[in-house]
Amino acid sequence: MQHLKDLIQRYLKGNASPEEVEALHEWYDSFDDSEVPLPVEPGEDRRMLEQRLLNRLKPVMQPPKVKRIPFWRYAAAAALLALVAVAGKIGWQHRYPSPQKNIMADNTAATDKPPANKKAMLTLADGSTITLDDAANGALGKQGGANIIKKEKGQLAYQAADANGAVVYNTLTVPRGGQYQLVLPDGTNVWLNSATSLRYPTSFRGAERKVILQGQAYFEIAANATQPFKVQANEMEVVVLGTRFDMMAYADEPTINATLVDGKIKVQNKILRPGQQAVLALSGHELTVRDADVNKIMAWKNGLFVFNNMDLPTILREIARWYDVEIVYQSAPGKELYGGGISRNLNLSAVLHVLEENGTNHFKTDGNKVVVLP
Hints:
This is FecR family protein. By secondary structure, this protein is an alpha+beta fold.
């Protein structure tokens, strides 16, 4: 990261060698699903640095090739990049929406929506609730045999305290426009996406560890061969045999999906290997297993929207959850499919602008609504 910072500063001052300029352009053309903030000097405004870098690089950019530069070599693509291409065009296209520019309707500047932040509601066994974004860091109380600790903004953990304590259930609810991380009492890590809830016991006892999911979450399961981990999401149950996986079960999506990143899971009588996805259709209840684009599935956790031949309604459902907006159609969505990615750290107007530039629909914001126009 320090090497990249030094390279950017030398380039902006006109002191970079030809080899360094070439390296910087290769980094700029690169894209990786793991996102790294743009390095800035102490006291330097990141947005101003982004714009200065864009102004210098943009005029000499060549049409990018579809390629991946090794992540370790140039520290990956920075958060300023918004990358979207319409399926059917060759390669990926760079787009550079300025955060300061009013690129939507006249009222956009006043109503623009920031990206999701770290907020959640914890419901205790007695039905009382704690708003975690308002709670101070540290101990929040005790539930059953576990202490509840708010570790820092966006992170909640359970720590075993009393092996004989009662087993009670808590629910962590992340609203639209939010995200949160949870450490369960067995050490399992869970990342919760927007519009998601997870119900879980405050201690795991008996023959299994079981939680109930609504929405989308990524799990890194603590190993325990004698006590299998299970995730129930509506009509799909995933039996975890030591693994990392993503599960998506939103009420407004047509399927429930479980995607295996590493290890092994079982869905019904099917064993998945890494890179596979179990898909349960809510109409007809048919379960299929297929190869998955893991990078696309994991993009939300890594700070990106990634589209892989996705239609506009599917994209807008994801945007609605992330920015906590309602989508209103005054025109039918175009038939184009999208591929590429956009940073989730951009404001709503910038994301919609990128979609406008690459599709046939236009958008305007009206309070908490995004209106789809011809």
